[in-house]
TrEMBL record:
It comes from the Bacteria. Residues 127-163 are annotated as: Disordered. Residues 31-134 form the YchJ-like middle NTF2-like domain. Gene3D superfamilies: 3.10.450.50. InterPro entries: NTF2-like_dom_sf (IPR032710), YchJ-like_M (IPR048469). This is YchJ-like middle NTF2-like domain-containing protein.
Length: 163
């Protein structure tokens, strides 16, 4: 039996030993970074139901019908490739229950670079960690190479209050 492919989340593990258990509902991601990695893998592997299931109840897409959300993602998925994920920085859970992860997602659409850097917020909903919100920026709009960013330098590059 051939080995399973590496996990798209770039953990260095095989998919079956990494994000597959989350995608299949056998386990919940143990922390915000693991959830973020598993969501990147879900985009790469078109695990669209998982992307819906791991949205926090406060996320705006949760007010839409699930079928509309999944249909839109399916339409986009056929042209997107996800070759690499770089986790840049993370903040453990704060007093409000929010964890933050800064990452650089390499994404290509029909050969065009659609990569982005995102500061994502996650909250636990009593069952598992969920994606609550994110602030994304194109790498070319940032004053430094994406790989050198931290949460502090990303915040400083966006100006006051994310402007």
């Amino acid at each position: 039996m051939p080995p399973t492919p590496p996990c798209p989340c770039t953990s260095g593990l095989r998919y079956t030993a990494c994000c597959a258990r989350y995608h299949r509902g056998a386990a919940e991601a143990p922390d915000a970074e693991a959830l973020m990695r598993s969501r990147y893998s879900a985009f790469a592997l078109r695990e669209l139901d998982y992307l819906w299931r791991t949205l926090h109840p406060d996320h705006p897409d949760r007010s839409r019908p699930r079928e509309d959300f999944v249909r839109e993602l399916r339409a986009q998925a056929s042209t997107l490739k996800y070759p690499r994920l770089h986790v840049l920085d993370r903040q453990l859970t704060d007093p409000s229950g929010t964890s933050v992860v800064l990452f650089y997602a390499r994404v290509f659409e029909s050969g065009k670079d659609r990569s982005f850097v995102e500061r994502s917020e996650f909250r636990h909903d009593g069952t598992g960690w969920r994606y609550r919100s994110g602030e994304a920026r194109a790498p070319q709009s940032l004053p430094t190479p994406p790989e050198s960013l931290t949460l502090a330098t990303f915040a400083a590059s966006t100006g006051p209050a994310g402007e």
